[in-house]
Amino acid sequence: MNHLISIDDLDRAGIERILDRAESFAEVSGRDIKKVPALRGRTIVNLFYEASTRTSSSFELAAKRLSADVVSIRSAGSSVDKGESLRDTVQTLSAYDPAAIVIRSPYAGAAQLVARWTDAAVINAGDGKHEHPTQALLDVFTLRQRLGSLEDLNIWIVGDVLHSRVARSDILAFQRMGASVTVCGPPTLLPRGIEALGCAASPTLDGISEADVIYVLRMQHERMQESFVPSLREYAERYQIGLGRLQPNQLLMHPGPVNRGVELSADAIDSPQALIGQQVKAGVAVRMAVLYELLAGRPAAHMAVAA
Ligand code: ASP
Question: What 8-state DSSP symbol labels residue 159?
């Protein structure tokens, strides 16, 4: 694997290899000195063209804990247009001979484009509505840590599926690991034809009591040009997951950031069934494992030329 653009870049064995390695990196993160020399002397560029807290901070920490040199660049999405300026930026940054470029962009397909313009390994940290593969890997990691395996799990993904790159990557990853997936939300927020990904689709919460895991998505107001639900109050009445709708044996996940009181009630967020904190914690170890997977076996560019 040269890049991580989509969960489709990984088969089940590849996912398991990354998660096994993430477990040993999680152990490093528990030490006083949280650093290993694996990527010493390599340069990693984080290019974030869209708001991010968890993903950008965990990629930065992951690179530092592997002893790489890190350059983090942020730019307001609106100031960057899709085509040439991104290409110019990537070409400029290529002067530093980066081993990896981590990119978040509001445009679906941006990571794929960057991979064409650079020799570096490219990691998609979220491209528009398309995919967010490292989020899905950390979600699988969190469930595997808690339950041992995803085999035969019944997972419901609830909310704004239409605008969610997390949903697309999670549907692929959860199924690849043996779970069955149902997506649920108002019909206006369920993409037409989503069943082609192998999941079921439900416009109501009927049947959710059978789920082992409820994965709630954020209402993505910033991606909505029109009104997809009559009102947030009505949305919350029909789809909000609160303790009243959560069975005692069900686990609750959310990629963050949460709109408290919209897709999730405060009591559910703070309940012991919620794995939201564990998901964030898993982010660093899993992103260390992804960087390691892509870079450790790959010679630095100048070494490749010498060889
Ligand atoms: N943080 C996730 C993402 O970047 C989920 C979200 O923003 O709702 O896609």
Answer: S
